[in-house]
């Protein structure tokens, strides 16, 4: 049977100009729909900006923590962890769900230590395993390996009390890691508490691995008897090999192992430090040297030398001039950005740091040669450039990103500059403000993170002179930077979390729309302290504001939360409830459309609109998201932009049969009411032609919403 032809186009019923279909006056966002419409159209045409922003923030923070996040971190290495509370109760456990890359690392890179079979047997027959070993001996890697069979694995905040793990806080079948048990908890832990915890884990079919450093003693002898010591990884060369194959082909790996001089250096290093962590670092240095070309031995030896604190001090004090110092600071703050962007920012910093001099003495001789070039500058800085991608409104563009060869230099030099150069400190803060309003969002994000790192060093000073003025600014970029700086400071220093949370609560209750908007953009502080539900409630308190900046801040924060939480977030039900409240209806519509336009999910190589994928996987979410679309396509003034986003969805899934069918099923639910059915049919017919064609999606949708398909 042939597919039904699209019906002839007919004019869609006009929306009332002054009232919506319910007789309500236009809402705040509808009176400024042109600006909002342009933003929605831009996000729909180039989705994924929220994920790019969150990835940049994670990269910036992990760089200052001297480690890379997720798959890039070496086995046994430190990770910068962001825990969130599972509920609003005071003693609720805080945890972080491990990503697929974290678990894949445990499968691909793990080399079994002696005695691992006994650990695996204990995990298979019990619910709690205690593992003890020296630092950097692979405890966390081992814990991940033991829990690979669990459908989800979580890392608990080290301060978690075992009594806080109840059936209400655990996920069915989940695996949990309580790493490096603190001394106080170890001393207070009793056999009764372990037995009670085992029963809870049994009830939830969950498992827990508790790790302890060597020397940590458990007071209760029955608990102490449960501790199993982690054996040595005897084949450290295998650790190196497994890390090398992450990034190099077989020929490159052979060249490394065939290099006698380099392997002698490796053996010397392993005799000094035999930990898996150190073996992984050696592999990382060798891989980077292989990719850069040149002498493998010299490059690895140089990288090892950079790890010395005295070497860093000598290097920092020996930077020859202000241009080099400025570039060093720019790389510390903006490492990971394109070289040209960082160099331009460094020149701006240099101009701000230069002392005032008479014009004649400042002028360079007219025939003087140009100063040292890029290669010479990078050598002085001990930095390098690597292939990368910069995001633009027209998509990703290839570029060369600059970073220090030793990641520890980023944090070290930023703090060195802050602590050593008193007179330059105010100018540094002024330069960070300029970077926080840069045209590239990634630059703005990195500047805000660097400000948060400095806030840990001098919180009252940075809060009063930088963060508060940013929070009160009329510029949304500066308000976002203030929120991001606070979040970075709170996650870096646990002692700052409570005062920062109180500060954000005060801003939320303030009469200033700017401070309210900044409080809304600081949602991750409440999220980390009390969970997603509490963060949504905090945003709900601000969602009835008539100030457009506050509304947009609420909507952008909901979009970020939806990106992180995915189908777990009760955002659809929350937004539907807001639609029944006239004061919150603008925020509900904008939050939904911004999320629909921007969020994407990659599944088995196919890029889905994230909300479409969520609706496909969950029948409840399917009906909720359909109801939100039904409202959006009939919303006064905003409906043209909703239809633009919907057309982008159709274009995105047109060549993907499963996703295309899912879109048709969702829109069939949207079309259950006559008015929305007319609109969906009208829009679907237009997808068959135009510059953003989606003919397959058009036919599929029209087939499902046709009157014939709806007959019993």
UniProtKB/TrEMBL annotation:
Annotated spans, Disordered: 1-53
SUPFAM superfamilies: ARM repeat
Entries under InterPro entries matching the protein: ARM-like (IPR011989), ARM-type_fold (IPR016024)
Biased composition (Basic and acidic residues): 8-33
Superkingdom assignment: Bacteria
Gene3D superfamilies: Leucine-rich Repeat Variant
Protein name: HEAT repeat domain-containing protein
């Amino acid at each position: 049977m042939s597919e039904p032809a699209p019906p002839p186009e007919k004019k869609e019923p006009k929306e009332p100009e002054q009232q919506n279909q319910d007789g309500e006056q236009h809402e705040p966002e509808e009176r400024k729909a042109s600006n909002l419409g342009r933003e929605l159209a831009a996000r729909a045409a180039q989705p994924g900006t929220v994920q790019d922003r969150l990835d940049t923030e994670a990269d910036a923070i992990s760089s200052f923590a001297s480690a890379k996040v997720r798959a890039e971190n070496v086995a046994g290495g430190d990770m910068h962890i962001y825990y969130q509370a599972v509920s609003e109760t005071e003693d609720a456990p805080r945890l972080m769900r491990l990503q697929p890359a974290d678990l894949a690392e445990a499968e691909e890179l793990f080399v079994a230590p002696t005695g691992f079979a006994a650990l695996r047997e204990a995990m298979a027959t019990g619910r709690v395993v205690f593992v003890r070993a020296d630092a950097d001996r692979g405890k966390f890697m081992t814990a991940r390996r033991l829990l690979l069979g669990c459908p989800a694995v979580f890392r608990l905040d080290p301060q978690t009390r075992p009594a806080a793990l109840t059936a209400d806080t655990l996920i069915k079948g989940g695996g949990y890691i309580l790493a490096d048990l603190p001394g106080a908890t170890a001393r207070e832990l009793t056999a009764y508490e372990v037995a009670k915890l085992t029963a809870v884990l049994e009830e939830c079919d969950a498992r827990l691995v508790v790790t302890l450093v060597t020397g940590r003693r458990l007071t209760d002898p029955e608990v102490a008897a449960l501790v199993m010591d982690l054996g040595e990884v005897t084949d450290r060369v295998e650790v190196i090999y497994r890390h090398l194959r992450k990034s190099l082909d077989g020929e490159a790996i052979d060249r490394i192992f065939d290099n006698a001089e380099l392997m002698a250096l490796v053996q010397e290093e392993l005799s000094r430090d035999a930990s898996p962590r150190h073996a992984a670092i050696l592999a990382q240095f060798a891989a980077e040297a292989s990719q850069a070309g040149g002498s493998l031995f010299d490059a690895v030896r140089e990288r090892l030398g950079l790890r010395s604190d005295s070497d860093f001090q000598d290097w920092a004090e020996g930077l020859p001039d202000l241009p080099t110092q400025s570039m060093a600071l720019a790389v510390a703050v903006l490492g990971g950005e394109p070289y040209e962007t960082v160099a331009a920012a460094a020149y701006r910093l240099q101009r701000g740091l230069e002392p005032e001099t008479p014009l004649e003495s400042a002028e360079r001789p007219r025939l003087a040669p140009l100063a040292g070039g890029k290669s010479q500058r990078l050598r002085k800085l001990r930095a390098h450039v690597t292939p990368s991608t910069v995001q633009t409104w027209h998509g990703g563009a290839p570029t060369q990103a600059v970073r220090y060869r030793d990641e520890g230099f980023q944090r070290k030099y930023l703090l060195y500059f802050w602590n050593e150069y008193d007179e330059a400190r105010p100018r540094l803060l002024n330069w960070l403000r300029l970077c926080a309003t840069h045209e590239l969002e990634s630059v703005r994000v990195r500047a805000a993170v660097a400000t948060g790192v400095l806030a840990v060093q001098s919180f009252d000073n940075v809060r009063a002179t930088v963060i508060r003025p940013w929070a009160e600014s009329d510029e949304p970029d500066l308000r976002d930077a203030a929120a991001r700086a606070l979040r970075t400071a709170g996650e870096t220093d646990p002692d700052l979390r409570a005062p920062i949370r109180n500060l954000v609560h005060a801003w939320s209750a303030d009469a200033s729309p700017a401070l309210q908007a900044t409080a809304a953009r600081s949602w991750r502080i409440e999220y980390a302290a009390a969970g997603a539900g509490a963060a949504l409630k905090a945003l709900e308190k601000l969602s009835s504001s008539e100030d457009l900046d506050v509304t947009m801040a609420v909507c952008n924060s909901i979009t970020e939360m939806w990106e992180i939480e995915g189908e777990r977030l009760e955002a659809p039900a929350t937004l539907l409830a807001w639609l029944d409240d006239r004061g919150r209806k603008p925020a509900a519509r904008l939050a939904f459309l911004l999320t629909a336009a921007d969020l994407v999910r990659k599944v088995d190589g196919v890029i889905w609109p994230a909300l479409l994928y969520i609706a496909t996987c969950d029948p409840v979410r399917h009906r909720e998201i359909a109801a939100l679309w039904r409202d959006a396509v009939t919303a006064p003034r905003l409906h043209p932009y909703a239809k633009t986003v919907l057309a982008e969805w159709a274009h995105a899934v047109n060549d993907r049969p499963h996703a295309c069918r899912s879109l048709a099923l969702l829109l069939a639910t949207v079309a259950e009411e006559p008015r929305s059915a007319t609109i969906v049919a009208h829009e679907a017919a237009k997808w068959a032609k135009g510059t953003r064609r989606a003919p397959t999606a058009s036919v599929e949708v029209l087939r499902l919403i046709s009157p014939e398909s709806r007959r019993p």
